[in-house]
Amino acid sequence: MSGQFESLRASSLYCRRCGQAMPVRERLLLVLPDKEIYDYLCTGCADSVGQREVTAGELLHRRVAPGPRNPSPHLR
Ligand SMILES: [Zn+2]
Predict the structure, then answer these.
(1) pLDDT digits (tens, 9 = 90+) for 1-18
(2) Domains of the chain: which residue ranges?
């Protein structure tokens, strides 16, 4: 089973507004020289339910796209 890996990523977080764990959307909030800060928004009420910092070391693994902006917003 590969379900354990998905639980490591914050695909759903508890939302106080909705009163239950809700699927969240990751949004790039802030870009710093050594890290990026992501905001997690509840897909039910669009409230912010959490944040995550990605340090430069992790960014190296995530360097897939050529730029910080998503070139194809219709992907999802
Ligand atoms: Zn919510």
Answers:
(1) 444 444 445 589 999 999
(2) 9-64
